[in-house]
Design a protein that fits this description.
Structural class: mainly alpha
Shape: elongated
Strand content: 5-15%
Helix content: 40-55%
Distance between the termini: 32 Å
Order of helices and strands: HHEEEEHHHHHHH
Number of strands: 4
Radius of gyration: 18 Å
């Protein structure tokens, strides 16, 4: 009874608080927008920028759309793209459930120790059932940037999946304490604690 009261109070309290500025990673509040990456780039034939020619895979893979050349680029040859564009592609691929390709694109990110890279490595690990590995990545992301409230939200949602709502509540309180009240990171974790259902983005 007391535990339920504590959970209810912690979940309801942020509704009465003013929204602070978004902390790092907290403003990814919309579903990833579908682009040619997930609409047209799942095919066996992909552009290889090194060879400057199309190559054919034995089965379809999800390439990444490069609007500047109007082609689907094989996911393991996308390091020349802007890091923010790669990040958008990772989110879009992960939301589409194409976790292998999302991880391949993550491999192309210039800074593998960046907290948002670690956050999405944790996300793809969690969505493929590797909860322990996911927590390792989330913790690395938080160690690199304690104000990464998206990593905290994803870690908390993983704790909901594990049945540990107390640990999820700990991350919810951290999000609120770090200016995340009213953000997507806070809202999605609060919803997960209340409903037991986690988000795919």
């Amino acid at each position: 009874m007391l535990r339920t009261l504590i959970l209810t109070t912690a979940i309801a309290l942020p509704l009465a608080l003013p929204t602070s500025s978004f902390a790092a990673g907290g403003n990814d509040n919309a579903k990833p927008k579908k682009t040619e990456t997930t609409q047209n780039c799942l095919q066996a034939r992909q552009w290889d920028p090194d060879k400057k020619a199309y190559v054919r895979f034995s089965q379809p893979v999800n390439g990444v759309w490069d609007a500047t050349i109007g082609k689907c680029v094989r996911p393991d040859k996308t390091s020349y793209l802007d890091a923010d564009e790669l990040y958008k592609a990772v989110r879009e691929l992960a939301y589409a459930g194409r976790y292998n390709e999302a991880n391949t694109v993550l491999d192309q990110m210039p800074d593998q120790a960046e907290d948002r890279v670690l956050t999405y490595r944790g996300f793809t690990a969690r969505k493929t059932g590797q909860l322990e590995l996911a927590n390792v990545y989330y913790q690395q992301a938080i160690d690199a940037n304690p104000d990464n409230i998206l990593a905290r939200s994803y870690m908390g949602q993983g704790k909901v999946v594990e049945g540990d709502k107390v640990a999820a509540l700990t991350q919810l309180r951290e999000i609120q304490a770090r200016g995340g009240a009213g953000t997507w990171a806070e809202q999605s974790l609060r919803d997960a604690i209340e409903s037991g259902t986690t988000y795919n983005y």
